[in-house]
Amino acid sequence: MSDLLTKATAAKEARTALASSTTDEKNDALERIAVQLAVDETSILEANSLDLEEGQRQGMSESLQDRLRLTSDRLKEMSSALRELKQLADPIGEEMTTWKRPNGLSIQQVRVPIGVIGMVYEARPNVTIDASSLCLKTGNAVLLRGSSTAIHSNRALVKSIQTALKASALPEGAVQLLEDTSRETAAKMFKLNSHLDVLIPRGSAALIQAVLEQSTVPVLETGAGNCHVFIDSSAQKDMAIAIAVNAKTQRPSVCNAAETLLVHKDWSANYLKALLDDLTANGVEIRGDASIVSFYEEAIPAEEDDWATEYNDLIVTVKMVSDVQEAIAHINTYGTTHSEAIVSETTEHVTSFFQEVDAAALYHNASTRFTDGFEFGFGAEIGISTQKLHARGPMGLLALTSSKYLIEGTGQIKG
Amino acid sequence: MSDLLTKATAAKEARTALASSTTDEKNDALERIAVQLAVDETSILEANSLDLEEGQRQGMSESLQDRLRLTSDRLKEMSSALRELKQLADPIGEEMTTWKRPNGLSIQQVRVPIGVIGMVYEARPNVTIDASSLCLKTGNAVLLRGSSTAIHSNRALVKSIQTALKASALPEGAVQLLEDTSRETAAKMFKLNSHLDVLIPRGSAALIQAVLEQSTVPVLETGAGNCHVFIDSSAQKDMAIAIAVNAKTQRPSVCNAAETLLVHKDWSANYLKALLDDLTANGVEIRGDASIVSFYEEAIPAEEDDWATEYNDLIVTVKMVSDVQEAIAHINTYGTTHSEAIVSETTEHVTSFFQEVDAAALYHNASTRFTDGFEFGFGAEIGISTQKLHARGPMGLLALTSSKYLIEGTGQIKG
């Protein structure tokens, strides 16, 4: 059997025992993994060195090397995260709803694991531990497909996980690593509906697009964020400036950072200069529409493409708008349905914005930067879904669950 | 612009107004469609005749012609279904959950439409009305891609819908029909992520497989049902026989009909003959494992493929098993995670079966035939999902909804 089929079959076989495991058994396994990472520190760091050396030989960029690098501190952070995960409520087994039918059938919907999850990611070995632990906590088996450039690190980490699982009550086969990291095998994995219930790609837009293009297995999509802040005519000056600057600059590389500011013309008449000065002082390059460019010397003209671009950088597009409807129309045209904010003191404008903007998270008088599983209080995050099915917005443990109906009868047959 | 892009854009443009429409406006539109179908009866039936004549010229089978055929009575049934749909609760706008974060942010999750739904189906014009009305009730725009063999019927039905919408408060563009029914255009539609939020294929396994293979748009999959009835050693004789015969014979062509019976050897010792005689008397062909074939003259040997086959016909495979664990293992190997039943008086066996069998609906002492949106009391059915994401089992109106988070702040920024 191929590496893919061997590993996928092992994961699938672990699924039934995993689904029946208790919360205590799952938490015990997480604790054992946390301990094992410390026990195996030397061999994990040695394996990681092999990947880093190979990366340097291949001319891997400094930032990619940093993502690939494991250290004693980073291993300790992984163990801490595992122990925090233990504290979270176990969603599996929850009785979601129960009702009785006129024919006497009693129908109960209960929360269950999804089954077998295929995780596809790049050269970030921390995802190996993160994804495995979230899957185990929710009773799911996982087939990991990491990057070839992290294969030694991933192999060492999965060895620690499997050592810990062997000593636990959970099936050892619950976490599987694909050793064959070829594109051909990945393409087969994406179509392995017989073994995998869902694929979760984590990484660049190109990776996610490749999985979407090739897969027949359902995909839990986490996507791009072209987020906007709309400053209404009634917005408080200081609040609006603080939110816009925070959304743009607090961490420009992430998906919930703002890329475009939409500024009401009346507010602009008084405060636009203060806003643009503050952005400029924070090192932000301003690309504006005609009104902005003519008003502000440092601004350069925005091209059509700019409005649709997720810069992930200290660049912002600024557009002057006449009313909330123009702002909504712009967002629904160029946005990626991720996170959108309105700063306003006018209730009916907020209502329209909340009603009509199509996005996972809508903010009134707050920064878009709060779209995050931890900021939402979920205690864990699988990613931020920009699709409409299954889960939308920040995904916590519930996103890794499904349900089944249990029906109790007394001999009912269909007439 | 191509027919596909024109129609998809029109649907997308209708989405915002639709999402904001009230329950009364949506119900009024459904009533107007019900009325319009009666007004347009002559032209609809004429259009349908064109499709039927063409079908006959092409040698279309009688059963396909029957699915394609519209009659005055069938149009009246469509109008009745539209009026029943009016009575159902509108799920849109429901406040699903609200909580407050330590930083003062108030987060509310509300139920919203999915957006634009692509419906892909075969030569059954009733799906045109059924799918459109379910989408409208849930505030979704819909792009219909029916079969070329039903194009005149679909065009007439959509004309009636659009006439009704024009007189209603809903946007007229909410329901769009692809006139171009080529495979090339379908392939483009399946990848139109910029306009479509979800694809729902309704029809044969081949159709569903084609959509899954080609799509990058998320698919709401409704699948095959290879369902089992396990008769435990403690099962009551009459109840077990009644459930097995009902699950197999009451309507063998549907996905929730049973295809395999797993019979405990101790129960078999007393009652197997009565069961097999009853099935035979109901015209069922019996294919058995070695024990069954040696016991029952009329039984023919089952091949390996039989255990994985959804016959949709009066054929059943029968296997003798030693215990509930063997039954569970068989179902988890050959089943399609649709509907599975245990007939038993032994509580711990029922518990194991409910816990360990991986399926959308599990029955204790009832027929598998109840897996159905109407039998579950949903009042409507989009289909029966056999996937784990978004919706599992019978899908009612909720399956056509998503959610968004509305976050109220007082100037919060991320530190």
Automatic annotation (TrEMBL), chains A, B:
Subcellular location: Cytoplasm
UniProt pathway: Amino-acid biosynthesis; L-proline biosynthesis; L-glutamate 5-semialdehyde from L-glutamate: step 2/2
Catalytic activity, reaction form: L-glutamate 5-semialdehyde + phosphate + NADP(+) = L-glutamyl 5-phosphate + NADPH + H(+)
Cellular component aspect of the GO annotation: cytoplasm
InterPro entries: Ald_DH/histidinol_DH, Ald_DH_C, Ald_DH_N, Aldehyde_DH_dom, G-glutamylP_reductase_CS, Glu-5-SA_DH, GPR_dom
One Pfam family hit: Aldedh
Family: Belongs to the gamma-glutamyl phosphate reductase family.
Name this polypeptide is given: Gamma-glutamyl phosphate reductase
